Amino acid sequence: MHPLNSSLGNFSMMMEVEDTPRDEKLAKVEIALLSVIFVSASILNTGLLLVLWNRRKQVSRMRVFVFHLCIADLVVAFFQVCPQLMWEITDRFIGPDLVCRLVKYLQVVGMFASTYMIVVMTIDRYQAICNPMVKFQRRHARWNIPVCVAWTISLVCGLPQIFIFSRVQVAPGVFDCWADFIQPWGLKTYITWTTLVIFVLPILTVVVCQVQICRAIQVNLYLKTL
């Protein structure tokens, strides 16, 4: 599952006048959709995790990737979809500054982890199909290197969230979890950087690998027909 980053979704809200009443009908639709996404993602990913855990003795490279992909999706569900759902219900972020920064950090970590776990899975399949003579190490620690890389990228690239977002006063006596960007280029830089590293680069990497995989399969089939 890949719901949109709620921090990006809040940018339009930041531009509105603070005392403008929200559209209650739209809010109810958003609450219903977020509830369905949260429940579905939680149940399905937890179920798959239990299945993989029960079959942990039959470990394989792809099962390790899928296991961590499920964990990444659960991070998205519990730290991105769930807080956004609560936010829609209360209309304001309820919690101290530390919770605000932590939630915003984990929201992006989940997005990064879910995205880059797919990237490392694709690169692994590319190596297996396009470079079949490469001898993969069979030790469990070796299998976890791509997974560790994906998690490291996620944890490091999410750090700016801690410094950008904080609990601020948006109206007299009213506090919310908002971003504070350097003017006038901060917001544009943030959106450009997020789009590049979460969407553009991963998509390009996956597309290039998939094209090479398709070519390798096509060549292999052609050689077999000779």
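The above is record 1. Record 2 follows with the same two-line structure.
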Amino acid sequence: MLADRSARIPKVCYEIFVRSFCDSNGDGIGDLNGVTSKLDYLADLGIGAIWLTPIHPSPSYHKYDVTDYYAIEPEYGTMDDFRRLLAGAHTRGIAVYLDLIVNHTSTLHPWFTEARKSKDNPYRHFYWWMTQDQIDHLGISERETSDDSQVVYPWHENPGDDEKYYGLFFKGMPDLNYHSDALREEIARIIRFWLNDVGVDGFRLDAARHIYPEWDKEQSITFWDFFSKVVEEAKPGAFTVGEVWAETEEVAPYLRNLNATFHFDLSFALQRMLLAGRDEQIVDKLQASFNLFQKYNPLFVNAIMLTNHDQERIGSVVGGNIRKIKLAASILLTLPGQPYLYYGEEIGMLGMKPDPYIREPFLWTPDPGDPQLTGWIKPEFTTLKTVAPLSAQTSDATSVFNHYRTLIHLRNTEPALNQILAPNLQPVRLGDDQLLAYFRPHVDRSLIIIHNLGDTERAMTLPDDKSLFTEVLFSTDPLHETTLTTNRLSPHSSVILAPAGNARAVEKQ
């Protein structure tokens, strides 16, 4: 049963910021038909699911302030375009997850335009309203900033009104108030519409820990009990992955009602390790997190990533160092869990905040006039001078793209690597914190993965009980082609080992 359920979970997912991915009509803005045109590319890369950042109508470039939950942003296309994308993805065995924003709306959403009219408007209770005296009495006029919101003063004026409304992220994004049964009924209708009427496969859930404000935050976890029951009744097996941007201890309880949560602690640890060139005992920390997650959900899915649309791109984090970019991919794609790639990571895209510059256009070809190239922003980091476009990387056996593609296909076909439920991970102690090594046990074939995080060649001696692991399945080290020939590992290199006589070689990238 565990194997059957695991087989239905996409092995590798791909986050698409639609505006920047691919333009199909020459207006400079990425769109749904552009995504559809690249489904063969994604299938060839080995992607099992795509997460589309918000595609609802919205006044912003990022679309996280929704004005209509039942429609498609006109810049991105039509509902027919989306249905064609969905059908094309499903034909290729690719699931589609919709980014659903249920923490807040735009101030331009009809619910809020009604709510702000008067205190007795029936939509008033869809949002949080208080007078300044009430706010002061509760001591909630200010908040400490967090990784996911830099707003200090979350209460905002409504002209001509003695009550203010609460908006954690921005005054143009008022938070919804789920003490309202009528609002819950509306959200349930939205869920059923997208799962049943349209046919999406699941949701990425924005700001999952902020569904209720901080003074009522214990309610945020119980909200997802309501939400998950609606999802399961509407479409059994639909997938939910939550953005709970917090430390592991705070994340864990959300797995009681969500299939997966993003592992931010791992993301930031990997970034630090790549910069410092030293292991942070990450395998031990992962094992501890798995034990904690399992208490809340024995079938938890650990959604892992290097970075996403809210973080500086991994390519820039490591200073554009191609060997470290490849090393980052090697670590991510050999750890247990469900990896999420941020579009363009597979070609080494760069980007640093502010946010628009971590969401720059994907480079398909070396032609600056390429009609597929989106032009809504002039890129500062990912340009034809700094990043080789996909078409150039495809034919380069040593490219970042081919490194990703080879690893993804290995992960998809190697049972020890693609086990998602009941994560199989054990440390391998090599006595050197510049080496990161771990064991992926599996009944079909167990594997050992070793990464040299440092800038110098390192000696590595496997423990006696792992001495038979000498066949090389994958290597970025010229010292090791198909067999482990020396006890040295080159800087920023990785090697995947199987027991001797029980391996099939994968072309070295």
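Residues 72 and 78 are 6 Å apart (CA to CA).
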